[in-house]
Specification:
7 helices; elongated; disordered N terminus; about 35% strand; about 20% helix
Length: about 270
């Protein structure tokens, strides 16, 4: 690896690694065994393809960008890794690099990120409006209600949300009126919860309490693992689609939308 001029300035270029280390672990024997090749002259592309052949995995299903990723040339990374179904972006050290990840690896089926990857932790509306199968947002802070209404993904997971119970009540009311029509599953993990929030969230919303011993199976998008839904609060959208809201002590809220293709036999 060396420093050279990439498409976006001076970046680390991917070349033949000076050495290659393989680590073997065993379920039956404690410890590990390391194998090391010195003065290797095979390219990074060769080793990547070699590993893909060994494990019969010819596509990058998931790419995680984290600390100091922005030191590398994005075009080199794209050429090496190719297309992928899912990207997770943490603090890479550069807002511009984060934006280039989204441009170079688009389209995506699943996108996960921390809000801090954007200037002022403000999520671009164009990201929220994309048709992801899954959108996962971490350390969300305060997300305006109008931004929540822009989400157009099937699965939406938000952690660290600072949102009032009244705003969540309004979100549910607007969903009942037809907003977020593609959403099949919503998960919100709050930072702060107050006593009586459940009552405020459901205030004025017609609903039915489902007994805790009543079980239903929910099929997640893209062949995700089915979820067993025990009890909950049922609500209905204007077009007749039913949803179930469940609360957890973390505190968190889940919302399951029972489209026909999401219903599984129990």
């Amino acid at each position: 690896m060396y420093w050279g001029m990439g498409a976006y300035g001076r970046k680390k270029k991917l070349t033949a690694p000076e050495s290659v280390v393989a680590v073997e672990y065993s379920y039956t024997v404690p410890g590990k065994t390391e194998y090391k090749w010195e003065k290797n002259d095979l390219t990074m592309q060769y080793w990547f393809k070699h590993l893909q052949d060994i494990f019969n995995c010819h596509k990058s299903n998931y790419i995680h960008f984290s600390d100091n990723s922005s030191q590398f040339d994005i075009d080199d990374l794209k050429q090496l890794l190719g297309n992928t179904a899912e990207v997770y972006i943490e603090n890479t050290g550069c807002y511009t690099f984060n934006q280039m990840i989204l441009q170079k690896f688009s389209p995506l089926e699943k996108l996960s990120f921390r809000t801090s990857i954007f200037p002022n932790s403000t999520i671009p509306e164009g990201i929220l409006m994309q048709n992801f199968d899954k959108l996962q947002i971490g350390i969300a802070g305060t997300i305006p209600l109008d931004q929540l209404l822009l989400t157009n993904s099937k699965i939406v997971c938000i952690a660290g949300l600072q949102q009032t119970a009244k705003k969540l009540n309004k979100f549910i009311r607007l969903w009942q009126s037809g907003s977020n029509p593609r959403m099949e599953y919503l998960s919100i993990l709050y930072n702060i919860a107050n006593r009586g929030d459940k009552e405020v969230i459901m205030k004025g919303i017609k609903h039915a309490i489902i007994p805790a011993d009543h079980e239903r199976k929910f099929k997640m998008a893209r062949n995700g693992s089915p979820k067993l839904v025990k009890g909950g609060i049922d609500i209905v959208r204007v077009d007749g689609v039913k949803a179930t809201i469940r609360y957890h002590p973390m505190p968190s809220l889940e919302m399951f939308v029972w489209f026909d293709h999401c219903v599984m036999e129990t």
